[in-house]
Amino acid sequence: MLSQLFDIIVGLQQERPDSSYTAHLFNSGLDLILKKLSEQTTETILSAKNNSKKELSARISDLLYHLLVLMVDRSLDLKDVLGELKTRAGLPGPAASRDSHGTS
Predict the structure, then answer these.
(1) Per residue in 49-90, pLDDT tens?
(2) Half-sphere exposure (CA, 13 Å, Cβ side) for 54?
């Protein structure tokens, strides 16, 4: 699912439809992307203290979405992050890709 969402975000970055919130983020630049990521992080922290699984799930979903937008904006492929997680877990796996298209 994250891979599919990542691909959708890549497409929206390329196409930039006028009605797209994601395209608006890319058009506005890194500062807005980081501001929204900061806001979502704060909302996630506050939701975690409220003990509502539904609310926390929604906030984490927003946070993950904005993290993916940041990754696409910075040309960081999902495979790079997954490779890093595998390395940290001591699991074997292919080396992280060198560009945003997953090629080495």
Answers:
(1) 998 999 999 999 999 999 999 999 999 999 999 999 999 999
(2) 0
Could you tell me which CATH class the domain 2-88 is placed in? mainly alpha
DSSP state of 9: H
Extract the tokens encoding 36: 């929204």
**Cα 40-89-101 angle, rounded to 5 deg:** 65
Q: What's the rounded Cα separation, in Å, for the pair 20 and 14?
A: 12
The residue ranges of every structural domain in the chain are 2-88
Question: Whole-model pTM?
Answer: 0.84
Query: Six-digit token pair at 62?
Result: 């927003």
Residue 57 one-letter amino acid: S
For the residues of 44-77, what is the DSSP string, one character each? HHHHHHTT-HHHHHHHHHHHHHHHHHHHHHTT--
